[in-house]
Write a structure and sequence with these properties.
By secondary structure, the protein is of the alpha+beta class. It has a domain of 102 residues: Ku70, Chain: A, Domain 2 (Beta Barrel). The chain contains five helices and 13 strands. The strands form four sheets. Strands 1-2-10-13-12-11-9 form a seven-stranded mixed beta barrel. The chain is extended, with a radius of gyration of 27 Å.
Length: 272
C-alpha cells in the first residue's frame, strides 16, 4: 500500500483485536487558486486580525478561544481547558453491529480511509474482510480520535478494508420540505423514462473516464497568460428553455439517444 500511515488503531469486536494502520485514500488534486494582489505593486496582500471595539490590529499572542452563548456574549477558555474537554484519542475502532452494506445510504458518507494490517494483524484482518464479503455486510463502529467520537463504517474493498467516516443523523437536514409525495407519475411517462435509462445504462462504474474539465481549461488559460499570450475561454452553454410537456420531452430525449446510437454504429461500420 503506497504512502505512509497517518494513524494506527485497533479494530475490536467481542474478544477479537486487529491492529491496523490508517492511510489516506485520496491525493490532493491540482487546484487552480487565485490570490489577492495589490495591483500597483503586484504584491500579495495579507490578512490581519482586527478588533472593532478598540479599532486596532490584534497580535496572535493576545487571542484566546471563546464560545458565544448569547448574542455577542462569549465565555472564554484557556488552551488546557479546551484540551481537557476534548475526548481522549483511544484509536480503538469498536464494532457495534454488522448491517447489510446496502443499508447505509451514501448521504451519510464522509471521507474514506484505507485500513491496512499492522504487525500481527494480517490473518484476522483478511478474515474480517472475507467474512463481510461473504455475508454482504459492513460493520458500524465508533472511533475516538482528534478530540471527536466518530461514527464509521468498515467495509471490504479489493481484498482489504476501508473505514468510511459517517455523518451523524443530527448533522443531516430534513428532505421532507423539498419533495411533494402527492405527485402521481403516469405509467406511459414512466415507461418512456425507463427506455431512456436503459439506453444509457452500463453495469460498471469507470471513474477513469471522467475528469475535471473546468480545471483543465483554467490551467490551459493560465499557461497562455504566463507566456504573455491572450486567451479566450469557450462561452458557457446557454441553459435550455424549460419544457412544459413532459411526454414530449421524454419522446424527444428518446429520439435523440436513438439518433446518436445510429450515428455511432454507422461510424463504426465505416471504420471497419
Amino acid at each position: 500500500m503506497a504512502g505512509r500511515p497517518i494513524a494506527s488503531g485497533t479494530i475490536s469486536f467481542g474478544l477479537v483485536a486487529i491492529p491496523v494502520q490508517l492511510f489516506s485514500s485520496t491525493e490532493s488534486a491540482a487546484k487552480v487558486q487565485f490570490n489577492s494582489i495589490h495591483a500597483s505593486c503586484k504584491t500579495r496582500v495579507r490578512q490581519k486580525l482586527f478588533c472593532p471595539t478598540h479599532d486596532e490590529i490584534v497580535p496572535r499572542e493576545e487571542l484566546v478561544k471563546g464560545y458565544e452563548f448569547a448574542k455577542d456574549q462569549y465565555v472564554l477558555f484557556e488552551p488546557d481547558e479546551i484540551k481537557a474537554m476534548e475526548m481522549a484519542a483511544t484509536h480503538s475502532i469498536d464494532i457495534k453491529e454488522f448491517v447489510p452494506i446496502s443499508a447505509v445510504d451514501p448521504i451519510y458518507f464522509e471521507k474514506a480511509y484505507y485500513l491496512g494490517p499492522a504487525t500481527g494483524g494480517d490473518k484476522p484482518y483478511v478474515l474480517l474482510s472475507e467474512v463481510m464479503k461473504k455475508t454482504e455486510r459492513a460493520a458500524l463502529a465508533k472511533y475516538a480520535a482528534r478530540g471527536k467520537d466518530y461514527l464509521v463504517l468498515l467495509r471490504p474493498y479489493e481484498g482489504g478494508l476501508i473505514m468510511q467516516q459517517l455523518k451523524y443523523d443530527t448533522e443531516l437536514r430534513g428532505f421532507d420540505e423539498l419533495a411533494d409525495p402527492d405527485i402521481v407519475v403516469d405509467e406511459k411517462e414512466l415507461a418512456l423514462a425507463e427506455q431512456i435509462v436503459e439506453q444509457i445504462s452500463t453495469d460498471t462504474f469507470s471513474p477513469e473516464g471522467y475528469m475535471d474539465s473546468v480545471v483543465a481549461q483554467l490551467q490551459e488559460a493560465i499557461e497562455q497568460k504566463v507566456a504573455g499570450h491572450d486567451f479566450t475561454l469557450a462561452p458557457a452553454e446557454e441553459p435550455k428553455a424549460q419544457v412544459i410537456d413532459l411526454m414530449e420531452a421524454l419522446k424527444a430525449s428518446l429520439e435523440s439517444e436513438s439518433s446518436e446510437g445510429d450515428d455511432l454504429a454507422a461510424s463504426a461500420g465505416g471504420a471497419s
